[in-house]
């Protein structure tokens, strides 16, 4: 199952999350709330796996969300919708996100640059372009 419901959830919030990730709430398509996901999720695409993982995480309304290239298999439209959702619905959520996609930088206020296992820079993204050699090479 896409969601293994335990506990109490706000129905409107669940619907919002399903709409965000194009999860069919009316069970008219293979990617619906009642869809059966086989072991190792071999019957769904990598993008659908990422959508399910993110939807499950958001449904729990965490205070901290750590993601490592968690949207790399999503198209740009869904990715933008996700980050807009974070901005508009998750103000108390802290996100630590490993990314290599420059367009996603607009959604963040701070950047931590790690080079060879050491922190090379931490601060505002605008300062990173000037003060971080590594950041400048990656995102200029």
* Structure classification: alpha+beta
CATH architecture annotation name: 3-Layer(aba) Sandwich
Q: Give unreliable regions as ranges.
A: none
| Overall spatial form | elongated
Instruction: State the strand order across the main sheet.
Output: 1-2
The biggest beta sheet reads:
2 strands, parallel
Could you report the average pLDDT, rounded to the nearest whole number? 85
Q: Under CATH, the topology is which?
A: Rossmann fold
Helix content: 25-40%
By DSSP, the count of extended strands is 4
CA-based gyration radius: 17 Å
End-to-end separation in angstroms reads: 42 Å
Strand proportion: 15-25%
CATH superfamily: P-loop containing nucleotide triphosphate hydrolases
> What is the H-and-E element order?
HHEHEEEHH
Structural domain tally: 1
Overview of the molecule:
The model has no long low-confidence stretch (mean pLDDT 85). The strands form 2 sheets. A two-stranded parallel sheet has the order 1-2. A two-stranded antiparallel ribbon has the order 3-4. Helix content is 37%, strand content 16%. A hairpin with a 2-residue loop joins strand 3 (110-115) and strand 4 (118-124). It has one domain (11-108): Rossmann fold (3-Layer(aba) Sandwich). Helix 4 crosses helix 5. With 140 residues, it is α+β, with helices and mostly antiparallel strands. It has helices at 11-20, 46-59, 76-89, 125-131, 133-139; strands spanning 64-68, 94-98, 110-115, 118-124. The radius of gyration is 17 Å and the shape is elongated. This is ATP-binding cassette domain-containing protein. Keywords: ATP-binding, Nucleotide-binding. InterPro entries: ABC_transporter-like_ATP-bd, P-loop_NTPase, Type_1_exporter. GO terms for molecular function: ATP binding; ATP hydrolysis activity. Pfam families: ABC_tran.
């Amino acid at each position: 199952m896409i969601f293994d419901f335990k506990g109490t959830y706000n129905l409107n919030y669940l619907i919002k999350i399903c709409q965000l990730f194009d999860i069919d709430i009316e069970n008219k398509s293979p990617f619906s709330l009642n869809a059966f996901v086989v072991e190792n999720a071999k019957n769904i695409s990598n993008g659908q796996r990422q959508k399910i993982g993110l939807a499950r995480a958001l449904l729990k309304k965490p205070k901290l969300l750590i993601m490592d290239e968690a949207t790399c298999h999503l198209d740009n439209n869904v990715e933008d919708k996700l980050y807009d959702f974070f901005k508009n619905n998750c103000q108390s959520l802290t996100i630590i996100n490993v990314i290599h996609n420059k367009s996603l930088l607009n959604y963040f206020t701070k950047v931590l640059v790690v080079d060879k296992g050491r922190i090379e820079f931490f601060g505002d993204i605008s300062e990173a372009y000037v003060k971080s050699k590594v950041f400048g090479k990656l995102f200029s």
